[in-house]
Design a protein that fits this description.
The complex is a heterodimer of chains A (about 600) and B (about 260).
Chain A lengths: L3 H18 L6 H26 L4 E4 L14 E4 L1 H21 L9 H18 L3 H19 L6 H32 L4 H8 L6 H18 L6 H7 L4 H31 L3 H24 L4 H21 L3 H32 L15 H14 L6 H15 L5 H24 L25 H5 L3 H19 L3 H13 L1 H10 L16 H22 L10 H17 L4 H22 L2
Antiparallel strand pairs in A: 1-2
Helix pairs in contact in A: 1-2, 1-4, 2-3, 2-4, 3-4, 3-10, 3-13, 3-18, 4-5, 4-10, 5-6, 5-10, 6-7, 6-8, 6-9, 6-23, 7-10, 7-20, 8-10, 8-23, 9-12, 10-12, 10-13, 11-12, 11-16, 12-13, 12-16, 13-14, 13-15, 13-18, 13-19, 14-16, 14-18, 15-18, 15-21, 16-21
Chain B lengths: L2 H24 L10 H14 L4 H9 L1 H21 L2 H20 L7 H23 L8 H18 L2 H7 L2 H26 L21 H30 L2 H4 L1
Helix pairs in contact in B: 3-4, 4-9, 4-10, 5-10, 6-7, 7-8, 7-10, 9-10
Classes of the chains: A mainly alpha (about 600), B mainly alpha (about 260).
């Protein structure tokens, strides 16, 4: 049964090769079918692995090279529930994106399908591997596919620039990761994560370990888009084709955080474990900044895709707080939150794709009232906005409650305010656009010229008839994604399973025993977490109602009595504009911020972890 | 940010990052004193176990063969990305090609290529191909293998371009063929890995007898993997050369004005 692990990666890779090799003979429809079926097969394999890893760690040595007396000879997949769960989720989102692409995107030959399958293979391998260098290989593989997919609409200028900024900043991240790996190899002589962790724990940590940790964390934070490494994200996500946006926003950014979790618990926990409190404080502060500033920028946006891009960064901040608390209940809660939010954000992107298909614009002001005859899309978009604001019983509410309860236990009760603010503000941005586009609420306005977008579409329309109706294959993904977000909050034993998976990931001794010595380490038994309490529902209500109120206030600004004195309002507006202008689109600026971020994190780690 | 502001941000940050990296380097073993358990183990067991005299190749294609599958796919994906990002100009290219063919006939490249270069260049094509094939197939014995040999094979195409005409290069390497070759090479690596699962019960397991040390077919399936990679790399680089040449010669018209 373990053989499913390599197949989950090999099947999409081989299929991508077949699609590219037969590009000149096979038809577009055939490519669509092959791609969807392949992604579904890989997803199924990951789901079976997920079920198995719930009992014990699944370890697979490629080529049959078992470790010899504690030294890894080959490359292993070491599959635990959280990794397998994230891989399954990636597969699901890619399936949905491919179905949405059915009518979407004029593709050239089958390169689009091949790239999507390679992207999936990279993400799955990234989640399953137990080897640090192999992690880097899959990091590069999924990034390369993503660069090409972001720049796909080459007939416009913005996608090429977004893709270029994406490629330069993320390649910088890959170089940092590679440097970190080589430092660790120089110290431990190992590439297997369990072996590195075992070896690092034998001796006191020094500058080399801190430098390696900083470089690895910073490299993965670029992918995750933690402030100040985040600037590339809005440029890239706002120009990518919609199905690609859904995958990037729902899964790819989150993989950066998964990698940080993985290397901390598998490699560095033994070396730095005594200073856990310091790391917790650093990560929670970084998460708070990443959650709040982009949330405000999200609210200040009228370009719908750019708005959702900032919402993605804001949520990365919330997840960083969740994983940064460094306990199993916070990590398990974050896993639930991340998947539920991924479903919701993907559904919002797909709704924007439908609007773009029907109305050839993604600007809130230009679309003012032009969505009145699209009630279904409007309803789904608004529900998605409420789910983003963690309305019970969506999975976002459940995940947020679990993380908040865990934060209180660690003495970080104040982060609840951050969670409520970030989810209310991002939800409000979506609800405001929904009101303006689908109900025609609020005054008409002008979008700022700098942020106007080309009116071009990315879809196959055929004729005007195509614009009047939304094809069924476009609705289907929205319903499926929102149902997924809802299901994450309703599946009865899910929180318990997530917490057990988190505890398994954090048990370094059991990980080393399972990977290097073939022990059949069992996943610990934990009681189910208590269901959300009245207080949790109050927090959920606060963020959902807060989102509604904020959206209404933005729409009916003129009719409101001046609650805020004009100078204060003007000052706040100027501050938001100043922060927004930092996102200049110039990659040199972004690189400067990245280097500054490495220095700040490096200084914080060296001062506290030794 | 203004240029000045960016420098003010970058300079201290760069200094801090450099300090961190240098601090990390001071923790490395002194020159000649590195004792990595992994490397030492492979150095000891690789030749007896795999019969391949090039330990680098038996490491990258057998012990860590799965990494190489990923790396091969990175090149494959990068070239697919190139095809995507440069494709806009393909449509225009077909129209302009005819026009350029006429021009080239009169005032084009032929006049600017000296006889010496043409004779020497065409004479180089054969040896270049032979050398490339040699490096691909002898990866198990001497330094080399599919990646290195594949690049050498792709340069044969550039020699044709240098010695002759752009059109001649296009004739000997039609794009669909290169695309298919590249994809087949990438796919073949994954399929050979699958062969390990089916025949020997483990993905990427070497399912062919390693043979005797020093013979051409030693190393089990390693020569097969090298050929797959050689095909992929040769196709990928040829495709990349062509895409870039298409951009400069056909679309910007630089070919005629240089």
């Amino acid at each position: 049964m373990n053989h499913l692990a390599p197949l989950a990666v090999a099947v999409p890779i081989i299929a991508a090769g077949v699609l590219a090799a037969t590009a000149s003979v096979a038809s577009r429809r055939l490519a669509d079918i092959v791609a969807v079926l392949t992604a579904a097969a890989s997803t199924t394999l990951c789901a079976i692995l997920l079920a198995h890893s719930g009992h014990h760690q699944v370890v697979y040595w490629f080529g049959g090279w078992q470790p010899r007396s504690g030294i890894a000879v080959g490359i292993a997949f070491a599959v635990d529930p959280l990794g397998a769960g994230l891989a399954t989720f990636a597969g699901l989102i890619v399936c949905v994106a491919l179905v949405f692409s059915w009518r979407h995107l004029e593709t050239i030959s089958h390169v689009y399908h091949a790239l999507m399958l390679v992207f999936l293979a990279g993400m799955v391998g990234f989640c399953l591997t137990g080897d640090l260098f192999n992690l880097f290989v899959f990091f590069e593989l999924l990034s390369t596919a993503a660069y090409a997919l972001v720049g796909y609409k080459i007939d416009q200028r913005a996608p090429l620039e977004g893709s270029l900024n994406f490629a330069i900043t993320n390649s910088l991240g890959a170089i940092m990761v590679l440097f970190g790996i080589s430092l660790l190899y120089g110290r431990t002589g190992a590439l297997n994560m369990a072996q590195i962790g075992h070896s690092l724990a034998q001796q006191p940590a020094d500058g080399l370990v801190v430098a390696a940790f900083t470089l690895l964390v910073a490299g993965f934070f670029i992918k995750a888009a933690v402030v100040p490494f985040h600037f590339w994200l809005a440029d890239a996500y706002s120009v990518a084709p919609t199905p690609v946006c859904a995958v990037l926003s729902a899964v790819m950014s989150e993989l950066g955080l998964y990698a940080v979790v993985r290397i901390w618990w598998s490699c560095f926990h033994g070396a730095f474990g005594d200073h856990e409190d310091a790391l917790r404080a650093i990560l929670v502060v970084a998460g708070t900044i990443t959650a709040l500033i982009p949330a405000v920028l999200c609210f200040a946006q009228t370009h719908l895709k750019r708005m959702l891009a900032y919402a993605t960064v804001s949520y990365i901040g919330l997840f960083l707080i969740g994983v940064g608390l460094l306990t199993h209940d916070a990590l398990g809660g974050t896993a639930v939150y991340l998947v539920a939010d991924g479903f919701v954000k993907a559904s919002l992107f797909v709704c924007v794709g439908i609007i773009q298909h029907r109305r050839a614009s993604v600007d809130e002001y230009r679309l003012h009232g032009r969505g009145r005859d699209m009630p279904f899309t409007g309803a789904m978009f608004a529900i998605g906005g409420l789910a983003l604001a963690s309305l019970p019983p969506f999975g976002t509410f459940l995940g947020k409650s679990l993380v908040e309860d865990a934060a209180v236990k660690e003495g970080y009760g104040w982060v609840i305010v951050v969670f409520i603010l970030a989810s209310a503000i991002t939800g409000a941005a979506v609800l405001r656009s929904a009101g303006r586009v689908f109900l025609g609420l609020g005054p008409e306005g002008e979008s700022e010229p700098a942020f106007e977008v080309d009116e071009e579409t990315e879809t196959e329309t055929g004729d005007d008839e195509g614009r009047r109706r939304t094809p069924f294959v476009m609705f289907l993904p929205v319903i499926a994604l929102l149902a997924g977000g809802l299901a994450m909050g309703l599946i009865p034993r899910l929180p318990q399973a997530a917490l057990r998976g988190a505890a398994a990931l954090q048990d370094q001794a059991a990980y080393v025993a399972a990977v290097l010595h073939g022990a059949a380490g069992s996943v610990p038994h934990l009681p189910a977490p208590p269901p959300p309490t009245g207080l949790d529902y109050l927090y959920g209500a606060l963020s959902s109602v807060g989102a509604l109120v904020l959206a209404a206030a933005a729409l009916f600004r003129e009719r409101l009595p001046a609650l805020v004195p004009r100078p204060v309002a003007n000052g706040a507006g100027a501050a938001v504009r100043a922060v927004r202008e930092l996102n200049s689109g110039r990659v040199g600026d972004y690189v400067a911020w990245i280097v500054a971020g490495v220095t700040v994190f490096g200084a914080a780690f060296s001062l506290t972890l030794l | 940010m203004s240029r000045r502001a960016r420098l003010w941000l970058l300079a201290p940050a760069l200094a801090g990052t450099m300090a961190l990296v240098v601090w990390g380097f001071t923790g490395l073993a002194d020159f000649g004193h590195f004792q990595g358990a992994y490397g030492n183990l492979l150095a000891k067991v690789a030749v007896p176990e795999r019969k391949a005299t090039d330990i680098v190749v038996s490491t990258t294609f057998d012990y860590r063969g799965f990494d190489t599958l990923g790396e091969e796919m990175i090149l494959f994906t990068a070239v697919l990305g190139l095809v995507v990002l440069l494709r806009e100009l393909r449509g225009e290219q077909e129209e302009e090609e005819e026009a350029h063919d006429d021009q080239e006939g009169h005032a084009g490249r032929e006049h600017r290529t000296s006889d010496a270069l043409r004779i020497f260049g065409f004479g180089m094509v054969g040896p270049t191909v032979v050398l490339g094939v040699y490096i691909v197939t002898h990866g198990t014995l001497t330094p080399g293998g599919g990646f290195q040999g594949g690049v050498v094979l792709a340069t044969a195409l550039l020699v044709v371009y240098l010695a002759g005409r752009y059109a001649a290069m296009r004739k000997v390497s039609p794009l669909p063929l290169l695309e298919a070759g590249e994809a087949t090479g990438a796919m073949a690596y994954g399929l050979i890995g699958l062969g390990g699962l089916i025949i020997a019960g483990m993905y990427m397991k070497n399912f062919i007898d390693p043979g005797t040390k020093g013979s051409l077919l030693s190393g089990g399936f390693i020569p097969l993997l090298n050929i797959a990679v050689g095909l992929e790399v040769a196709g990928a680089f040829s495709l990349a050369f062509q895409e870039f040449l298409d951009q400069t010669i056909l679309l910007r018209g630089d070919g005629g004005s240089e």
